[in-house]
Amino acid sequence: DIQMTQSPSSLSASVGDRVTITCRASQSIRNYLNWYQKKPGDAPKLLISTASSLQDGVPSRFSGSGSGTEFTLTISSLQPADFSTYYCQQAFGTPPTFGGGTKVEIK
Amino acid sequence: QVQLVESGGGVVQPGRSLRLSCAASGFTFSSQGMHWVRQAPGKGLEWVAVISSDGGNTHYGDSVKGRFSISRDNSKNTLSLEMNSLTPEDTAVYHCARDSTPFGDYVFDFWGQGTLVTVSS
Questions:
Q1: Between A1, A43, A98, which is nearest B44 by CB?
Q2: Cα–Cα distance for residue pair A37/A88, rounded to 1 Å
Q3: What are the chain B neighbours of A46 within 8 Å (beta carbons)?
Q4: Of the candidates A49, A91, A98, which has its C-beta nearest B45's C-beta?
Q5: For B53-66, what is each residue's pLDDT tens digit?
Q6: C-beta of residue B5 within 8 angstroms of C-beta of residue B98
Q7: Shortest Cα distance from B14 to chain A (angstroms)?
Q8: What DSSP element (H or E) covers B25?
Q9: Which residues have CB under 8 Å from B69's CB, separation 6+?
Q10: Are B70 and B50 in contact (CB under 8 A)?
Q11: Parallel, antiparallel or unpaired: strands A85-90 and B92-99
Q12: What are phi and psi of A29, to 5 degrees?
């Protein structure tokens, strides 16, 4: 199975901060990388697919980049609604696998 | 709008069985692959199973292979997960999720809120 490693596992930030989350794959997954936002008790939400394609309705402050084994999710100016847990997921091989998550908390 | 509503969760003893359902609406159910993804308490997301749009192809995660069975009824817009020989390690919130393609290409574009399964004696 392809292992996905996210860093950091948690971070504290303030409204307006620029936040970057990294996801590394154990082998090349080309650009088959998706990012999700998950809040407690809520359904996960797809933010970005194929490494950099922003989903309809997702604010433009979210962006994704990378290919091969290293990927990043960037929030350009953190808003109150963005305090959540973020997961990367590879869609290159079966089984699809998720990173361990990055919890973004209020500083 | 797309809606996925899971049901069927509850408390079950180890070794017993449980059947989960997911009612879909707001899209052409028969055109999309569907998945089950779970999240154990305090843990991350784990993919469980996928079924293609016509039900002809299924795949399972290693931890549930041989015990769980995914199925769908396109006439009733319903996805199901039959879970047998349950163990405490199966305790989790189970989400159904829509795939962005008919074949199950592992892009989960819409999710339900989930149903909690607790395996305990």
A1: A98
A2: 9
A3: 107-110
A4: A98
A5: 999 999 999 999 99
A6: no
A7: 25
A8: strand B18-25
A9: B58, B81, B82, B84
A10: yes
A11: unpaired
A12: -120, 20
**Whose structure tokens read 């359902």?**
B21
Over chain A (107 residues), the average pLDDT of each successive run of 10 is 97 96 98 96 95 97 98 97 96 96 94
The closest of B96, B94, B100 to B112, measured between CA atoms, is B96
Q: Smallest Cβ distance to A87: which of B44, B107, B112?
A: B44
Residues B67-77 have a mean pLDDT of 98
In A, minimum Cα distance to B108 occurs at: A46
Q: How crowded is residue A60: how many other Cβ atoms within 10 Å of its Cβ?
A: 7
Residue of B nearest to A98 (CA): B45
Residue B4's nearest CA partner among A49, B21, B18 is B21
